[in-house]
Amino acid sequence: MTAAQADLQDRFLEMPEGLRIDRPEVADGAALWRIARDSRTLDLNSSYSYLLWCRDFAGTSAVARDGRGRPVGFVTGYLRPERPDTLVVWQVAVDAAYRGRGLAAALLDGLTARLARGGGPAPTALETTVTPGNTASERLFASYARRHGARLEREVLFAAGLFPDGAHDAEVLHRIAPLPR
User: Fold this and answer.
1) SS3 of residue 75 by DSSP
2) Could you report the per-residue pLDDT of 30-64, keeping only the tens digit for each?
3) Which end of the chain has the lower number of beta carbons within 10 A, N or C?
4) Is residue 59 packed enough to be buried (19+ CB in 10 Å), middle (13-18) or exposed (0-12)?
5) Given phi > 0 = left and psi -120 to 50 = alpha, else beta, which region is 69?
6) pTM (two decimals)
């Protein structure tokens, strides 16, 4: 881990106001579902999927907890099977009462720092998709790329016409690489 990664890890794993970044547990699934639902921005998955996510992808996801240990934000991710050096960020959400404090950025930085020191191969790239007009997510990932000295490339991954319900905007792939080791 580089000195810059260690600094980010130290700065973000223990947050002000008693917040801390942790691995999700199955018992967190309901809270993650509620935070996603209340965001009114994310595609809401079934409550069952959040339980599975907390069980099967806890190692590549992170949750922010308040002083009582309750989830107040999360990032879910996985390593791409065809590219295990690429972390795909599925969703990032922060409870409305905790927005505007840099928590989403801290979650991303804390997660990638944990993966970098985790013993396995550290991701060298981060991918996510953002719908056009989601300025908060666009800014979040652009600032992540700047903090980590990586390039940010964008291209349409899934055109709107591919979605069977017809009410979905295109999903633009944001690829951030190379991540420092």
Assistant:
1) strand
2) 999 999 999 988 888 999 999 999 999 999 999 99
3) C
4) middle
5) left
6) 0.89
CA angle 175, 148, 112 (to 5 degrees): 75
> What b/e readout covers 117-138, taking b as 16+ CB neighbours within 10 angstroms?
eeeeebbebbbbbbeeeeeebb
Tell me how far CA of residue 27 lies from CA of 16, 46, 58, 63, in angstroms. Answer: 24, 15, 12, 12
Which of 64, 60, 57, 59 lies closest to 32 in space, CA to CA? Answer: 64
Spatial CB neighbours of 168, under 8 Å, sequence gap ≥ 6? 160
Cα gap 94→40, rounded to integer Å: 11
Give the pLDDT score at 11. Answer: 44
CA–CA dist 79, 81 (Å, integer) = 6
Please say if the pLDDT value at position 7 is more than 60. Answer: no
Tokens 């309901």 correspond to what residue? 30
CA 52, CA 25: separation in Å to the nearest integer? 10
Give the C-alpha separation, 3 to 148, whole Å.
12
Strands (E), 59-108: 62-65, 71-80, 83-94
Q: Which of the 8 DSSP states describes residue 70?
A: -
